[in-house]
Amino acid sequence: MERLLVLVRHGQSEWNQKNLFTGWRDVGLTELGIEEARAAGRRLKARGFNFDLAYTSALKRAQDTLTIMLEELGQTGLETKWDQALNERDYGDLVGLNKDDARKRWGEEQVHRWRRSYDTAPPGGESLKDTLARALPYYVTHILPDVLSGKKVLVSAHGNSLRALIMAIEGQSPEEIVKLELPTGVPVVYRLRPDSRIESKEILED
Questions:
Q1: 142 catalytic, yes or no?
Q2: Which of 22, 116, 132, 176 could share a disulfide with 172, CB 3.0–4.6 Å?
Q3: What is the maximal distance between C-alpha atoms in the chain?
Q4: Distances from the Cα of 115 to the Cα of 118, 128, 155, 174, 200, angstroms
Q5: Looking at residue 65, what is its pLDDT?
Q6: Catalytic annotation on 202?
Q7: Poorest-confidence range of 27-41, 71-85, 113-127?
Q8: Higher pLDDT, 206 or 39
Q9: Per residue in 8-45, pLDDT tens?
Q10: Alpha helices, DSSP H only, in 117-186?
Q11: Which of 52, 41, 47, 43 is closest to 74 using CA atoms?
């Protein structure tokens, strides 16, 4: 039985390109983001991967990344489930602001704390801890049982919601997970043991 789980952060978004806090704002992919999604799909196809089920968030950039990857894989009709639990972290009052402008307004140290601490939320938004609190239960009750039943699962989501999944899969601490950087459009391939521990991990970079 192959217990396969592949995680992919969406391709570059329009607001990634503009250096804006995005959060739950529903923006599209840039041309680079589209190409990153295509490249991810091509890498997966070149390795012979195919999937039984896909998961994504309620946001367009993750859904479009998934659609493009499935086109490259020749699996456009794949059963797909989406949920807000896999959405990016909500940046609250920072959404739509340029990150450099935010630093000028609140100071480098404060903005760094909002972005990189585990449990400090920006005004009106979520901390990474808050994001984990909604994404982790979804992983445990929906995604993980599918993987352990032998389904090959592809997940297209966001930097912070994927940190939640990786925290569960790899058993990382809050201190470790905040340091994790996930590049856009790069598949992370896990094969799990029956007890959900990692059998192997591979990052499909160029």
A1: no
A2: 176
A3: 54
A4: 9, 9, 24, 14, 30
A5: 98
A6: no
A7: 113-127
A8: 39
A9: 999 999 999 999 999 999 999 999 999 999 999 999 99
A10: 128-138, 144-148, 159-170, 174-177
A11: 41
The DSSP secondary structure of 33-55, one letter per residue, reads HHHHHHHHHHHHHHTT---SEEE
Tell which CATH classification among 3.40.50.1240, 3.20.20.70, 3.90.470.10, 3.40.50.20 matches the domain 4-203.
Answer: 3.40.50.1240
Sign of CA dihedral 48, 54, 60, 62: negative
Catalytic option among 36, 88, 126, 158: 88
Q: How far is Cα 169 from Cα 36, in angstroms, rounded to an integer?
A: 25
Q: For residues 104 and 92, what is the distance between their CA atoms, to the nearest angstrom?
A: 18
- Mode of pairing for the β-strands spanning 53-56 and 80-82: parallel
Sequence-separated (6 or more) residues with CB below 8 Å from residue 169: 5, 190, 192, 196, 198
